């Protein structure tokens, strides 16, 4: 009787364990769930002519800055893969090409009518990497016709996202278009560069709306 009881208890235990295990196996919906991209609005004072500011989509913020004329500091940032975009006034670079060792790139998204929310997938190809260029570094001698430049890498597709069309009145015009970014680690984001003005109307503050997909897929759809 004792032996029979032990066998019965063992069978019941085994049956219970298997049942629980089967339930656990079926409870895997999260493996098939599409991860919702993260969205946000980035706003930062990039008015300095001397500094590059390095932005990470994963962090959702500027993770550091460096002097554009400091060759050693600039080289250190070039060799990092924890940033995706860098801002110097209206100038933008990606972590790619001559600007960085990352897998980044960018392209202008083609739409007949601009609709940021309608962009639900990132293109799989067509991304341009950064090429050699220059930015204004020192404006202190402008009145005497002397302006200093710093040579650097720049993203060309996004180069004219804003243009100073009326210098006397400080009026900037903006491209009504989204850009798709491939990040330093090969993930994707869509951005809309909305403004280059501070609250008091001074140029240099960038406002960027973005949606970032951190699961590595091309999904950029947001559920409303």
Please tell me what the overall shape is.
globular
Assess the beta-strand content as a share of residues: 35-45%
How many helical elements?
2
How helix-rich are the residues, as a percent range? 10-25%
**Rounded mean pLDDT score:** 86
Architecture overview:
- The structure is a single chain.
- With 224 residues, the chain is α+β, with helices and mostly antiparallel strands.
- It contains 2 helices and 13 strands.
- The strands form 4 sheets. A 5-stranded antiparallel sheet has the order 1-13-12-11-6, with no helix packed on it. Strands 3-2-4-5 form a 4-stranded antiparallel sheet, covered by helices on one side. A two-stranded antiparallel ribbon has the order 7-8.
- A hairpin with a 4-residue loop joins strand 2 and strand 3 (61-67).
- The relative contact order is 0.19.
Present the secondary structure layout:
Elements: H1 2-26, E1 38-45, E2 51-56, E3 61-67, H2 71-78, E4 85-88, E5 91-94, E6 105-108, E7 131-138, E8 148-154, E9 162-166, E10 171-174, E11 179-182, E12 188-197, E13 203-213
Antiparallel strand pairs: 1-13, 2-3, 2-4, 4-5, 6-11, 7-8, 9-10, 11-12, 12-13
Question: What are the defining features of this structure?
Answer:
single chain, 224 residues, alpha+beta, five-stranded antiparallel sheet, four-stranded antiparallel sheet, 2 helices, 15% helix, disordered N terminus
Summarize the model shown.
This protein has helices at about 1-25, 70-80; strands at about 40-45, 50-55, 60-65, 85-90, 90-95, 105-110, 130-140, 150-155, 160-165, 170-175, 180, 190-195, 205-215. It is of the alpha+beta class and about 220 residues long. The radius of gyration is 25 Å and the shape is globular.
